[in-house]
## 1
Amino acid sequence: MFGFQYYTPTQVVFGKGTESKVAELIRTYGGTKVLIHYGGGSVVRSGLLKKVTDTLDAAGIAYVTLGGAVPNPRLGLVYQGIELCRKEGVDFLLAVGGGSAIDSAKAIGYGMANEGDVWDFYDYKRKATGCLPLGVILTIAATGSEMSDSSVITKEEGLVKRGYSSDYGRPKFAIMNPELTMTLPDYQTACGCTDILMHTLERYFTNGGNMEITDALAEGLLRTVMKNAEILARDPQNYDARAEVMWAGSLSHNGLTGCGNDGGDWMTHKLEHELGGLYDVAHGAGLAALWGSWARYVCGDCLPRFRQFAVNVMGIAPEGTDEEIALKGIEALEDFFRRIHMPTNLRELGVNATEEDLATMAHKCAVGVNGAKGSAKLLREEDMLAIFRASR
Amino acid sequence: MFGFQYYTPTQVVFGKGTESKVAELIRTYGGTKVLIHYGGGSVVRSGLLKKVTDTLDAAGIAYVTLGGAVPNPRLGLVYQGIELCRKEGVDFLLAVGGGSAIDSAKAIGYGMANEGDVWDFYDYKRKATGCLPLGVILTIAATGSEMSDSSVITKEEGLVKRGYSSDYGRPKFAIMNPELTMTLPDYQTACGCTDILMHTLERYFTNGGNMEITDALAEGLLRTVMKNAEILARDPQNYDARAEVMWAGSLSHNGLTGCGNDGGDWMTHKLEHELGGLYDVAHGAGLAALWGSWARYVCGDCLPRFRQFAVNVMGIAPEGTDEEIALKGIEALEDFFRRIHMPTNLRELGVNATEEDLATMAHKCAVGVNGAKGSAKLLREEDMLAIFRASR
């Protein structure tokens, strides 16, 4: 095992009606002029945005609003947000939505607290030295961005999707009311559950440093999310299942399920970033479409972990060779994806990629990771291409 | 399930040699004049204290020292610490040690940041509105105080042991090097493991609000701690086992294993507080000596949870009546306590309590909880006395 840092300062306020505490929380963290940042019209249609502005009005907290954060949130809107915040003297950001709104708000926060072009951080050129304080009202359980240090932004020019991680970007508070996720389309709910699973799986399949306590937490989280994702596929209005998935989403990406390891693998995410950049597919569905091909490609180089996963998480009987057990575990997770109507290849994802597209994505991915990345197996451009090909 | 708040702002720096980062961390959190607070001579003898003062000297950070925090830390030393801090203009507290030094430092911090008698907080009379910032170098894995909001202090007059919990008291950082716990006597190591288990068990045995994700994490933590406690009973120098237990100790009491429940039971702790106040026994050993008697007394009122514990944590086959399965789970945990040389009754603890002593403790305990407490079963003074009697 390795040494580690664990830092999750976000104050979580979880449960029914907790959005009513937003003004009190903004005040606690010193906000006097707020940018309310959100995505499409769903928070408008649901009345949540009005509820939030009413609460701030009643508390006498000034605000401006900026909607339009899309899945795979765009750099253009980030620049627009920074300009608006500067003009309006904003000192606190409130993201109302899912990962897109939160990640976009984090980028605006970096832009506000640092000189120069905010894209530099996402382009691995510089490190941020601060971030405007940020709070969240979460409406989608998926990215874990409400407690995590990471944000992912897509630059329109060349459709470059990049992530940046910094403790400065961790939200001050996260309001999580599972009821707010009930209006999500089933497909988005399943995408979210997949993303949550993947945040722990990326940390789980490594070739070094696993702690038993971390494994125990990770395996428990994975089993719980799978069970409740299936409940939600049948019964989307189930509050308890919504709550289980929502809290698991935060724990899956706040660092907890990776303590003591070598940092994790993360190649399924990196491959999906290229897919998301080029085809604008839903992130969770993209991950599901790629995972099986990645897993089969790397499994032989990380056999003890794939075996452990099969037995402890997927309930495979420990009979046969390690390879057989590992493969059954991979198949069982793919079966689960099918049961929640997630794709297990590019075709099912609706992506009809040419050989040239695959080569472009593999090349961009390899450049993005400076040549090679992966802990389960170190992948180079030719490996990435092979995985993309296998996923068609 | 219930709504909940989860707030663990403590920056954890975990691994070999991490104590070398103490000056850098104190500076990050604004400390310019430090009180180094510790317990007995072990941190002096081991050279850790000198290492810390050398590091602060090299960094040009001023400090004063105050040793003498004992197990069941005393109010008198807290007053002495507050006086010293005021005189010396201390603006940051560094606890070097285990729960006693940390809890004592928290109390000093409350005394510094609030007017009036600091005992008022422990005596349920007032709430603190702040705490001097506090960092920790942990040398004993047990109380979880390095990430928790709680501290327990004993008032010498009448030997009154009381706990106070406030988010203000959560440490800014916790340096955790598992190597620093290797010089602990085996008995203290086992006491620590017991305390860690109990922090999750107290949250686990409730009659309301359990979340599946919380249960999964709690059960994984309990199994991991038991396994590694047994390894340490045979091989105290095992770094990996030390690390597993140390990190589990923080996670067991930072709130994670209670999210969504009704606050937990906590009666074994409350009963042990009276035992610790009167006989000054090691906290973990006191908990082990009482737990079985508590469990048998309350089990019928919390049967589904005791059954789940037996099957999921203790590996009892789900055969027979719920009562039979539950009882086997209780017996299995007592067997575990014996294997790590912990007592399972007062006699084995070395306490020869008269009927009058038991009545005194039950009465003080009932007064301390305003008459009644407990979620597995609500206990009144007569129930407390019955449990003390059964534990002889």
## 2
Amino acid sequence: MSAPTATEEELLTAEELGRGVRLACQTQALGDCEVDLAEGQEIVVRKDLSKEMLRPFEPAPRVKRIEGELEAPELDDQRSDMLRLSQAGALASCDCRALLSVLHKLPDTLREGDYRVAVTLMDDLLVEIEPLAEAQAPLGVAVDVGTTTVVAYLVDLCTGEFVAASSTQNPQTVHGADVISRIEYGRDTAGGLAALQAEIVGAINRLVGEALAEAGASIEQLYEMTVVGNTAMHHLLLGLDPQYIAQAPYIPVVSQALTLYARDVGIRMHEGGQVFTLPIVAGFVGADTVGVMTATDICNRGPTLAVDIGTNGEIVLWSGERLLCASTAAGPAFEGAKISQGMYASPGAICAADLVDGDLVVRTIGDEPAIGLCGSALFDVTAALLEPGALGINGRLAEDEEGLPAGIAKRMSGEDNGRKVLLANDDDGGAVYLTQRDIREIQLAKGAVRAGIEVLLEEAEISADDLEAVLLAGAFGNQVRPASAVRMGMLPALPPERIEGIGNAAGAGAVLALCSEAERRLACELATRAEHIELATSQSFQMKFMETMLFE
Amino acid sequence: MSAPTATEEELLTAEELGRGVRLACQTQALGDCEVDLAEGQEIVVRKDLSKEMLRPFEPAPRVKRIEGELEAPELDDQRSDMLRLSQAGALASCDCRALLSVLHKLPDTLREGDYRVAVTLMDDLLVEIEPLAEAQAPLGVAVDVGTTTVVAYLVDLCTGEFVAASSTQNPQTVHGADVISRIEYGRDTAGGLAALQAEIVGAINRLVGEALAEAGASIEQLYEMTVVGNTAMHHLLLGLDPQYIAQAPYIPVVSQALTLYARDVGIRMHEGGQVFTLPIVAGFVGADTVGVMTATDICNRGPTLAVDIGTNGEIVLWSGERLLCASTAAGPAFEGAKISQGMYASPGAICAADLVDGDLVVRTIGDEPAIGLCGSALFDVTAALLEPGALGINGRLAEDEEGLPAGIAKRMSGEDNGRKVLLANDDDGGAVYLTQRDIREIQLAKGAVRAGIEVLLEEAEISADDLEAVLLAGAFGNQVRPASAVRMGMLPALPPERIEGIGNAAGAGAVLALCSEAERRLACELATRAEHIELATSQSFQMKFMETMLFE
């Protein structure tokens, strides 16, 4: 095997390289060798979104099922099949049109079903007709396209009940963990944009196929998909060129909500299936953030801050009068990338830590032997190291053990930038460390989020104390301990009871948009109402960032 | 070569069989032989529809072109490309959406065109964007799908000017000259329906390609197509099963106007191209008849009768209060089929005849040696034979020459049902005859049309004298001499000045619908207003038919 390239060193963690994980596109076989294909990493994703997790709403999906019986034609009633159908019962009021494929099957379906039929409508478009006795429930799916993880929630559109859910890693991850590296791949590689689109479309098709299989349903039952995702993921899914997002003045191709034919996007659904993408606000405040605004109905609350900590960190502030939003390059640090032994939240990842009797006590996902650490642990470990002074407010690990509790002291080793803290040791001699460099990444990430919050508070002319609630959305929003997030300074110092994890609120927004046209309109209104504050060029942000990087 | 089969005897004329024309699907090669592939028969079609032939109307096509310049984005104006575009100038009022393909090219088109662009809209859908300097005129095409002939009129949608026209034979003709044999082919042959659709779609694609080539335009400029045609042609073009049209109670699949994506129909146009089919009234009163109603704006006239003599004979009566319509099995006799030496209106066809000094004087298309006779000649010859008594009102040719002018007398030969009239003789010994059996076909055809007219007049409670105008539409509506049509009894006895040939009014209706949304609405209103009188089961029709078959 050739030695790891610079690209591999950048894209793979030290732990992965240690395990022999390699990128097929970068590695040369120098002799006979055995290659194990990587299984999809098992990711613990909060896909157990249940109806109870959604705020109350009135189900009123765009897809409607109508059943009934028609009068058979006679010589003194020679109306065409379609006219007869469109003048019957509930259809008479909607001036409906039909897909050509419905017209193709219309004559036989009417006659074989003895004129008792079930029709499926999207707005005033007839997309399916079935003999009443054989009619299948119409389904919809809400998809959250994360930079790292893709989740699908399958819903019965008649009852509004969840039917199944599935999740997978975003296959574009091989081109880089963050959106910028993917945008660059799409821009700089021939066929790159098409490849990125094919990857995410393929992943969604597989994901939806799994959910349908779990529900024992067929693809022909799937009429509508709603999608949230950040602007880059949104554009890559639709094959839109995101390159102008990545350079000033950061312009997306389209920000409005789109209603598209699934076949045009490459998504496998019912022949008339449509894809609704929630609107986006700006190049780095995407449909996922609009999903969060929608799921929290943020403008119907008191002053509220919502922070979505995914691969990027988007911040939304409802001041009671203005709806402000911004994005920060929190980067994928909180998802484990850029952290030397960081990993996704999968079994064996340290996910929490406490300071107990002067020592660190860590917990891993699945109580497996520790093989790395994931985002939520970063908050706890940082907070726990700050407490006894093992970590200074300037972000430097204590240079000697003097004055530190014995438990912590024993964990520290190395010098200067090689200084590190042992988090866990296993019997085989493997060990998980948090390094000085990791702490610098944490400082940058949390400092960016906090500076963004401060800029929005300043713009809205309110103070942190005025906030009734701080909502933590995102894959590990529920995992982060409010006290740790405050202690390490990512959030303003507020009583922990005002800080609430709300799970995958972006996904919840997609589900609401799937189940109710009113929620879809709400999403569009919120996106229009939102004022985007560009932090990339903000003097105020730069000034605050220098302060908020400190652990105080 | 195997001998002609029964099918060939039915589908080919005696003249064609005499020339050695055979059907490839019916003929077996019994030894070495040479096969000449039939060139497309050169058909003289009135494709020279000019703007002057249309009644005055206000051009307001559905496809609109808007040109303008946008403000370039800046850091304090981060609107997405699409939002920027949709809020600019004339677009701001229409809340426009865009095809995904437009979004794909949007960022580069804006930047390469220095934010000066031309956009093309269909309703509120953006279907094209071009740098202003390279913008091409948007075109539309109106297509008249006749049972026998297909005609396309290409129109510049900005100026409303005709750009080109083309016509061809309907390739489905190989499955039979009339609609019933095609419906039966579709029903009884595996894959028949798909084959019939592929044939007509292919013909339209070739036809439109020819018109575009003539205009030096590309397929990407073609945004909209409007279509007229009888119900069976309409259904076959769209792949809709027409079998229930052919059996009582004669039910079409769909009668409403349809707006379809060209790609769903298989028509080659701009990627976002759409096909608008005019509405139909009944199984045998199709979009072609609605085109006639529209082109004549029939409900804004005094009492008017319109007769469209194509392969079927459709009759429309506007009484001043009610709009009635019916179809008769005039059959393809008037187009030359079922007439022993009948042929389409192509060079060498006898197209007119006069009685001069007691003898027939015939005229052929292109003044070529006569090789057969076409529809318009049937009217003249019949009228000319009736005058001196060579043809009785009961439809029998005079059994002897007694009392007949010498010229006519010399032309008659044969006995009983073999009796025939020589129309033309050529130097090589070839001859064109009208036979007793041909006259029976003429009787059936003209009798059916006339009986239909009488039924509608009776239903409307007006008399023929009340008619301000009788309009003859159809491929040879302009060729038929009013006096002959009255003399042989197809039309009521009205002064010839009230009878007017109006050419391809169905096609004119398609052109109007292409150029104006108001005309499209008019077509829909007329189709809804039209009351269909079913003649197939009408007692009154049967009674009248027995009388109207007579030549009186």
